[in-house]
Each structure stands twice: as structure tokens, then as C-alpha cells.
Design brief:
The protein has 237 residues and is mostly helical. The chain is built from four helices and five strands. Among the domains are: 1-54, no CATH class; 62-118, SH3 type barrels (Roll), CATH 2.30.30. The strands form two sheets. Strands 3-4-5 form a three-stranded antiparallel sheet, with no helix packed on it. Strands 1-2 form a two-stranded antiparallel sheet. Residues 126-199 form a coiled coil.
């Protein structure tokens, strides 16, 4: 593993150099071999020590990948920079497998035709999709807030109606109690009136009987009195 890391470090160092720097590096490598060896050994040690810690972790390929651009339309031309994935480039001309484009800095560089596509990549739509998602989320939040307000209003209205119904029910029960009491009082009054009426009728009957008896008695006595008075009148004559 350490040898692989060492080779990787050497490859990275040399890949970043142009031809002149490469020759200068190789000429002076023997003089600095011990120092470079120590540095590369340190890189290998750090890489070897970091490998077990990252072995159990999951990583994803970055969306922001870089593509090398060259000074000419062949693989032998020098790498002069990079362009990021999804970057829009102005096409100038085409030659072989390469296309000359103008970078954001205004430089004319060459890039492989296979690294270009006629339409934007999915990553270019992410901001627009994020904006649409944010708009939809805002609408959903507004709709939910409006629904909650309406629900709260309806709940308050239902509570008010329930309170009114409870009050009306209480009033109805009180009225039923009053009606029951009034009916009981009416029955008691009717019963009392019936008794008093019977008493009055009995008194009327008693008075009528007394009057009738007095009349009969008077009718029986008066003829007898008249007959006596006639007899006395005749005797005096």
C-alpha cells in the first residue's frame, strides 16, 4: 500500500510539471533524492495510516469535476488549464478529436470533443429545480397556513355553536321544569276548585232545601191560620 501511495505522489508531482520542469526535476533528483525520499516516505506513511480510517466510509463522485484543456488539438500538446463540469464554452473551430473553445477567461484552448455535449448537464438545472421546489414549498406552506386558519375559524365557530346549543338545552330543561311545576299547580288548583265547588253546591242545596221546607211549612200553616180567623169573625157577628 505504501508503494502505491509513493507512486501516486510521484505521478501527481510530475503531472503538474511541463516538459522543461520535468527535465529539471529529473536532473536534480539525484541531488535531492534523500530529501524527496523522506518527503515521499512521509506521504506514504500518512496515506497508509489514513487508508484504514476511510475504508469503512462511503463517498460519492463529485458533480464538480474538472476537464483538462490543452494548447493544441492533440494529446501531445501541453495542458494549460481546466474547465469545470457543466461550464458553457463558445466553440471556435474543430480539428480531429478536439474542439477549440473560448474559456471564461477569454483564452482559446482545445478540449476533446467527447467531453462536450450540446445541451446543459443535469447539474445546470439544479438551481432552477431548487427554485421551483422553494416556490412549491412556499405555496404549500401558504395553503397549509390558510387551511389551519380556516380550520381554526371553523373550530371556533363550532365551539360557539356548541355553547349556544348547551345554553338552549339548559333553558329548555328549566322551561320543562317550570312547565311540570305549573301543570302540578294547575292540577292542585283544579282539585281545590272542585272541592270548593262541591261545597258551594252543597250549600246551595242546603239553602234551597231550607227555603223549600220553609215554604212548605208556611203553606201548611197559613191555611190553618186563615180558617181560625174566619171562625172567630163569624162568632163575633
Amino acid at each position: 500500500m505504501a508503494s502505491v501511495v509513493l507512486f501516486t505522489c510521484v505521478f501527481i508531482v510530475t503531472a503538474a510539471m511541463d516538459n522543461a520542469d520535468m527535465i529539471h526535476f529529473l536532473e536534480g533528483f539525484n541531488l535531492r533524492s534523500r530529501r524527496w525520499a523522506q518527503g515521499l516516505a512521509l506521504c506514504g506513511f500518512l496515506g497508509a495510516s489514513a487508508t484504514p480510517a476511510l475504508a469503512d466510509q462511503t463517498r460519492w463522485v463529485s458533480d464538480h469535476l474538472a476537464t483538462y484543456v490543452r494548447s493544441g488539438p492533440t494529446d501531445n500538446h501541453r495542458i494549460v488549464g481546466t474547465v469545470r463540469s457543466g461550464q458553457a464554452l463558445q466553440v471556435l473551430t474543430t480539428q480531429g478529436d478536439y474542439v477549440q473553445v473560448r474559456s471564461e477567461k477569454g483564452d482559446a484552448v482545445w478540449i476533446r470533443a467527447t467531453d462536450l455535449q450540446p445541451q446543459p448537464g443535469p447539474a445546470e438545472y439544479v438551481p432552477q429545480l431548487q427554485k421551483q421546489v422553494a416556490d412549491l414549498k412556499g405555496r404549500i406552506d401558504n395553503a397549509d397556513r390558510d387551511f389551519q386558519q380556516r380550520t381554526t375559524g371553523m373550530r371556533e365557530l363550532l365551539d360557539a355553536r356548541k355553547t349556544q346549543i348547551d345554553e338552549l338545552e339548559t333553558t329548555r330543561q328549566k322551561l320543562n321544569q317550570q312547565l311540570t311545576q305549573a301543570q302540578a299547580d294547575l292540577r292542585a288548583t283544579q282539585s281545590q276548585l272542585g272541592s270548593e265547588r262541591q261545597q258551594v253546591l252543597m250549600r246551595y242545596f242546603a239553602y234551597g232545601g231550607a227555603v223549600a221546607g220553609s215554604g212548605v211549612l208556611f203553606g201548611l200553616i197559613m191555611p190553618h191560620l186563615f180558617s181560625r180567623s174566619r171562625k172567630r169573625s163569624r162568632q163575633l157577628i
